[in-house]
Design a protein that fits this description.
By secondary structure, this protein is mainly beta. The protein has a single domain (2-400), classed as Methylamine Dehydrogenase, Chain H (7 Propeller), CATH 2.130.10. 3% of the residues lie in helices and 45% in strands. Strands 24, 25, 26, 27, 28 and 29 form a six-stranded antiparallel β-sheet that branches. Strands 14-15-16-17-18 form a five-stranded antiparallel β-sheet, with no helix packed on it. Strands 19, 20, 21, 22 and 23 form a five-stranded antiparallel β-sheet that branches. Strand 28 and strand 29 (309-315) form a beta hairpin. 45% of the residues are buried.
């Protein structure tokens, strides 16, 4: 068991697609960036699908056809593959990427393959506290939640109802996963403990049979966001049903459910930073608002867990990425699509150069800086070991300090 301790999720500044093991898109690093490009490194592809950062500062960039590792301002290695997802960084020098319907395990220093876990489709893994991998595996039309060792040994497999690219949430005692109508919680032995939706908790009797996973499944209900751990016994998730949708807070100690208290869009990027004054807060895309010229302006909004709006910041186009740091500074990226850029970039009335930017907001929503990229910005944002912001634009990995 001592050997398993080093096989947990890495402690780097950005180790998963959602930044950390809690799915909150928040780094434990204080982002010191002030809008100055520190460096850029050429990549094999124009765009990126994911960025992650290890404890030693090594950066991994996943494109559609290449996985690239960047050390001290230079490419250390690049392998031609189809990662198409953000690598998950482990503390033992390995990383996990989704490649060609499998979870590939590679060496961080060399990119050398070190194993593979069959997945059957696009899936996002999580790492349990006892050093195993949990992820959705697809077997034909069937979906299972599997707990597997890094050497490939199956610990257990439990039936689920629907596909999703969102990762499980691996807590010390529980593995919680959004699946169809419910968030479902299994213990480390794979025994279903409870399921919960907006109507409340259903405690289970310890059954591992299929009917326990699918009973009372509503075809029109869905968990629409990653499940985020808020600290203590609180979880946050976005739910939808036939006549509505919203964010809900689940207390897994008291078995209570309550709506967030403010109506916000679902299916948008979000981050959950922590303010000293109010605790955890949700930052996500705001509803568009008409300005004095009749144009709709998007933006981001921060609300506390009681649903109070703390601030709203408006942008000309909708942000496609939102992350935060340990001091509750918020970073957002806006960009036109590649198609819009190629079609209209030379039309002066569109002024698309002003739509490609990274912006930093203070904990109070005040704009601290805006940096304009040379072209469209890919979806992922990450925070590096030195507090720099990492993004990909026009085939370059940019570090903004």
């Amino acid at each position: 068991m001592a050997d398993m301790k080093i096989q947990r999720l890495g402690g780097g500044p950005w180790v998963t697609r959602l930044g950390n093991a809690w799915n909150s898109s928040v780094s434990l690093v204080n982002a010191t960036a002030q809008g100055v490009p520190l460096r850029s490194v050429s990549l094999p592809e124009r765009a990126a699908q994911g960025i992650s950062v290890a404890e030693d500062g090594r950066i991994f960039v996943a494109g559609e056809n290449n996985l690239t590792a960047i050390g001290s301002d230079a490419v250390e290695w690049s392998v031609e593959t189809r990662p198409f997802a953000t690598p998950v960084v482990l503390t033992d020098g390995r990383l996990i990427t989704w490649e060609k319907s499998n979870l590939a395990i590679r060496d961080q220093a060399t990119g050398k393959p070190m194993g593979a876990l069959p997945a059957g489709g696009w899936t996002t893994p999580a790492i349990t506290h006892d050093g195993h991998v949990v992820y959705r595996r697809y077997l034909g039309n069937k979906v299972h939640l599997q707990k597997v060792g890094l050497s490939g040994e199956l610990v257990w497999s439990r039936p689920l109802t629907r596909r999703s690219i969102d990762p499980p949430l691996a807590l010390p005692e529980l593995i919680v996963i959004g699946d169809g109508s419910y968030c479902r919680a299994f213990n480390q032995q794979g025994v279903l403990q409870w399921r919960v939706n907006r109507n409340g908790f259903r405690l289970e009797n310890g059954s591992t049979e299929s009917k326990a996973a699918i009973m009372a499944e509503g075809a029109d209900e869905e968990v629409r966001t990653p499940i985020v751990w808020l600290g203590h016994d609180l979880l946050l998730a976005g739910l939808s049903w036939s006549r509505g949708y919203g964010f809900y807070i689940f207390d897994i100690g008291a078995y209570t459910v309550r709506p967030l208290g403010v109506h916000l869009p679902l299916g948008e990027p979000l981050a959950v930073p922590h303010l000293q004054s109010t605790g955890s807060c949700l930052v996500t895309v705001a509803w568009p608002e008409e300005d004095e010229y009749g144009s709709l302006r998007s933006g981001v909004i921060m609300v506390d867990l009681q649903g109070n709006v703390l601030w709203t910041h408006r942008t000309a186009i909708k942000p496609h990425a939102i992350v935060a740091d340990v001091m509750a500074k918020v970073f957002l990226a806006c960009s036109p699509s590649f198609g819009r850029w190629e079609k209209y970039r030379h039309w002066p009335q569109y002024d698309l150069e002003k739509e490609c930017f990274l912006r930093c907001l203070g904990p109070d929503g005040q704009e601290l800086f805006t940096w304009y990229a040379p072209g469209p910005i890919s979806e992922p944002l990450a925070i590096g070991l030195g507090g720099e912001l990492l993004l990909v634009s026009e085939g370059q990995l940019w570090a903004i300090g």
